[in-house]
Amino acid sequence: MALPTIPIPPPFYLFILLFPPLCSICFLLLQPPKATPPPSTLNPILTITMPENQNQGEVMWPRLVFNKLLRRPRGSYSFIADFPSTEMQLEVASLDDPISLNRRSNDQMDAQKYKLFVSTWNIGGIPPPDDLNLEDWLDTKNNSYDIYVLGFQEIVPLSARNILGPEKSTVAKKWNSLITATLNNSQSSTQRGRESKQGEKQKLHPVKQGTSEKSIMQDIRCIISKQMVGILVSVWVRGDLRRYIRHPSVSSTGCGVMGLLGNKGAVSVRFCLHETSFCFVCCHLASGGKEEDAMHRNSDAMQIFTRTSFPRRRPSLDLPQKILDHDRIIMLGDLNYRISLPEDKTRTLVEQKEWNILLEKDQLRGEVSEGRAFEGWHEGAIAFSPTYKYYPNSDAYHGCIQRKKGEKRRAPAWCDRILWRGKGLKQNLYDRCESRLSDHRPVRAIFTAVVDVPRTKNSLRSFFLSDRLDQIASDFDCYPMETVFWSSL
């Protein structure tokens, strides 16, 4: 007599069965440690308030876990912005002015080029030391850029407490403080070189009276900073550009534990500069050195493109909501794609610097060429060593030195990448930096971004002196200049 088969419950019912005990276990494991009673010598006010704060934290923990497991966004659309002066705080109100991206004809637009610095760095959970020098990484000794986009992964260890608990912003604030100091302290030296070319640079907009144009251009501040567990992305712009940035927004998408927690996933930021929309996707995809793990990374990328959606505060605004709807798109992060070769052969080819042979077996390029991922995306030529995995504070790849018992070996790979999509982006540089802070090396790219700028009265002066006026005059006897060429911001 055959034994009766027991039906296997579908994944949904399995999730319902496992959800209550999982929440209980998480609650027990992740409770904040009880505070020790303060000494009697402390301020009596502190003695009274500390137990109350502790009880509030204990109440919030299960709620945070419950929200994360059910994909309930808790502050996923909020971000931090840095506006240091009163004048700029007054201009913040204009960031969400009801101005949509009204597509004008080419005759109503000027093309303005901006220098864009983009970099990604997996920190490996190591907090930055106070004396960390970022000048080489941010290329501030001899160059300056209009926009900086900086993405980090694992700014905190990916422990259960950090994944399921509240966001720890202390490390993010420290990174932003170091970046602010580096970008602004270096501007005084690069500004002298810029002043020599001041006459060659066309001014699109006048500077307000009583404001030093030199001080505004030197002032580089953060317009967006957003963290999700270990992922941090921040956008920094030159002072005289901030007034022309509209509709900044963020969106966080978790793809980690259970396909939804933030140990893996992406933080996407977007804004509009003049009439052009930008979107930057800072991501950390699935890890793993097996061949089938590449499919998990492809799935994470697809989930990010599908699930990421920017909030629509006003339905009347015609703003892009999905990542691929934007004009200029850049993806940066620890994509985690490996090299499909035996470990020993990979190490030998890395020592011989046979990059072309290694890149033929690069998983990311293989998935793109087979049409399984990142259709329509571009990446610059790679002419630098693999960025993963190093011993901390060393130039030796992991596994080259005699390893400890039970320690996993990691073959070198180009895990950290920068991709772009859309017209109007030209990559001028793609390289890595040599900081030894973590087991990854930071990767950076420099772009020239073309932005559509509505023609103004100042730009008409150059138009009348150009050959375009003679060409139009030969085609039309009478042309309504006011209605075609005159447009306001």
Which terms summarize this structure?
Endo/exonu/phosph_ase_sf, disordered C terminus, Deoxyribonuclease I, Chain A, 489 residues, alpha+beta, five-stranded mixed β-sheet, 11 strands, 2 domains
Question: How is this structure best described in words?
Answer:
This protein has 489 residues and is of the alpha+beta class. The protein has two domains: 86-188 and 217-395 and 409-453, Endonuclease/exonuclease/phosphatase (Deoxyribonuclease I, Chain A), CATH 3.60.10; 460-485, no CATH class. 31% of the residues lie in helices and 20% in strands. It contains 15 helices and eleven strands. The strands form two sheets. Strands 3-4-2-1-11-10 form a six-stranded mixed sheet. A five-stranded mixed sheet has the order 5-6-7-8-9, with helices on one face. A hairpin with a 2-residue loop joins strand 6 (265-273) and strand 7 (276-284). The chain is globular and about 65 Å long. Mean pLDDT is 77; it is low at 33-59, 83-99, 195-213 and 460-489.
